[in-house]
Amino acid sequence: MSAPSRVLIVDDDPMAASGVAAILGTSKELTVVGIRNSATTLGDAIQALRPDIVLCDVRMPEVDGVEAATRHARQPDAPRFLMMTAFDEEGRVLDAINAGAVGFLLKHDDPRWILDAVLAIKNGGSAYSPRAAAQLTEWIQNSRSSAAQRAAIEKMKLLTDRERQFAIALVTDGASDADLAARFFVAETTVKSALGAIRTKWGVRSRTEIAVIVAQSGLA
């Protein structure tokens, strides 16, 4: 059995951070190596604690989660950043994704979903909760420019019918690979292969980036 993934929690709300730590502590696949209530010294914490995953609040004083991801998510051997948000500043979440974050959660998501999301990140995937995905989709569709929509539609045209079905399901339901496999009566390896093909065709790295493009297209 592989060693547990090391998780660093960054949130200026000590109670919220402790609650998330308790949820993650129920899994033998994860170990919380630290909690920080500020991102101002996050670089030092990453060097000292060597986390595999940083679970980071979006809204914090001084250095917020977006700036933290911008500074650290694309560094060599960087931990993977999973953002938490109350989703009152949706555009900041998009900024974090562009900075290299691989997923986002709503703070009031079901605790089981928070745990599943971190485990998905541990296993090399991306994660965003269904409620967060729905809100993000609505925000993108309400604010998209015609140029961005046209570009997204052209990208959708590059996909096969099955790839398009999978991509849309990511946005509408926040479905996992296993969910997609069960829904479309295919093997989970088929889903992984299709999502890999989408990432290659679109030049993106994560499920979250796929979801953003689908939402921009307005085809979900």
Overview of the structural elements:
There is one protein chain. The chain is an alpha/beta fold and 220 residues long. It has two domains: 5-129, Response regulator (Rossmann fold, 3-Layer(aba) Sandwich); 144-217, Winged helix-like DNA-binding domain superfamily/Winged helix DNA-binding domain (Arc Repressor Mutant, subunit A, Orthogonal Bundle). It has helices at residues 14-24, 42-49, 65-72, 90-99, 111-122, 130-143, 146-157, 161-173, 177-184, 188-202, 207-217, and strands at 5-10, 30-36, 53-57, 80-85, 103-106, 127-128. A six-stranded parallel beta sheet has the order 2-1-3-4-5-6, with helices on both faces. Helix 1 links the parallel strand 1 (5-10) and strand 2. Helix 7 crosses helix 11 (207-217) and helix 9 packs across helix 10 (188-202). The longest helix is centred in the last third of the chain and has 15 residues, at 188-202. The termini are far apart. The mean pLDDT is 83. The modification 4-aspartylphosphate is found at residue 57. Keywords: DNA-binding, Phosphoprotein, Transcription, Transcription regulation. InterPro entries: CheY-like_superfamily, NreC/VraR/RcsB-like_REC, Sig_transdc_resp-reg_C-effctor, Sig_transdc_resp-reg_receiver, Tscrpt_reg_LuxR_C, WalR-like.
